[in-house]
Amino acid sequence: MSEKIYCVAGFKPKPGKEEAVFKALQSLEPNSHREDACIHYTVTRQIDNPYAQGTGYPIVFHEIWASREEFEAHCQRKEIQDFFAKHVESPDGDIEDANVCVYTDEPWNFDAPKV
Fold it and tell me: Could you tell me how far CA 22 lies from the centroid of its own chain?
């Protein structure tokens, strides 16, 4: 059975704060990559493309973690908590809105072999 957790975290910066938010999110990458359970952790920014004109948050983290427990432990790190407190929760923060979701690649009713 796959225990991996896939996280997509979207951020909508306040007007004029796009570059500052992107840089602040990039600053979280090095220490997150140091976590043993971190499989993938990359912040991206939306670009114009005629073949992908959907709407969404302009800045998105793509994360893969070894397990739910290790993802939740990552979320409790002081650096991550401080980022959300300063940039998302504070009225003076640079982020207007955030949307963090987790996913699994395991199908419904998957009969994982017992090893």
Answer: 12
